[in-house]
Amino acid sequence: MSTDSPLIIALDYPSLDAALCMADRLDPARCRLKVGKELFTRSGPDVLEALHGRGFEVFLDLKFHDIPNTVAGAVHAAAEQGVWMVNVHAGGGRRMMEAARERLERHGLGTRLIAVTVLTSMTADDLAEVGVGVSPAAQVERLATLARDSGMHGVVCSAQESARLRELCGDDFLKVTPGIRPAFAQVGDQQRIMTPGDAMAAGSTHLVVGRPITQAEEPMEALAAIEAELN
Ligand SMILES: O=c1ccn([C@@H]2O[C@H](COP(=O)(O)O)[C@@H](O)[C@H]2O)c(=O)[nH]1
């Protein structure tokens, strides 16, 4: 089932059972689901089949980063399993991103392919430590432009960068933003955060929300509060 909702719920759980327990409380008309490294490493492709069987569109968030041939093969494998969206690291460079895009095109696969710019958990100091001497905003701009020019459908960035990327890359370029923190939620390890309402106003096309819902005492109430903020 396809949905108009911008919400993507991150199923960061240590087992398939725990993830499906949450999925069974959610409605594919109201959100998409994200499967990341922990859950996929535990469950393998079974989780994709289980979520697709329940009618959900799935973002497989494995952030591939390797040589072009390897990444193209991984993206191809993900797309053949029917995922709605898959991602790579923009830091893998133009040839890597182009190889992934070309592989999907060659096989007529319509999976959205997006690139991670700068993780929302990172600050300017973190970037400096890995040899990047510019602000997160400047680095996101640089990598988003490269991702657009390499044929990506969009990027993962923080909502703090969405407005600038809307100017630079347009409305249709996807801005998938984790680091979403409603006023009631703990910040945790995220650094570049924004509330759901502000993120949509800034130009985010999709909001990734994990712990504010999955770790809430009443997850369905947390989801409803976020939806209310968006309407
Ligand atoms: O830059 C990034 C890229 C990916 N993520 C992922 O999004 C969710 C966020 O979960 P919260 O619990 O809402 O913090 C998580 O799965 C991350 O792996 C990100 O946070 N930042």
From TrEMBL:
Homology family: Belongs to the OMP decarboxylase family. Type 1 subfamily.
Catalyzed reactions per annotation: orotidine 5'-phosphate + H(+) = UMP + CO2
Source species of the chain: Halomonas alimentaria
EC number(s) per entry: 4.1.1.23
Pfam families referenced in this protein's UniProt entry, alphabetically: OMPdecase (PF00215)
GO molecular function, one term: orotidine-5'-phosphate decarboxylase activity
Superkingdom, taxonomy of origin: Bacteria
SUPFAM superfamilies: Ribulose-phoshate binding barrel (SSF51366)
Domain Orotidine 5'-phosphate decarboxylase, chain residue ranges per copy: 6-226
Active site: 61 (for ompdecase activity), 63 (proton donor), 63 (for ompdecase activity), 66 (for ompdecase activity)
Gene: pyrF
Protein name, entry field: Orotidine 5'-phosphate decarboxylase
Its biological purpose: Catalyzes the decarboxylation of orotidine 5'-monophosphate (OMP) to uridine 5'-monophosphate (UMP).
Presence of keyword Lyase: yes
Complexes and interactors: Homodimer.
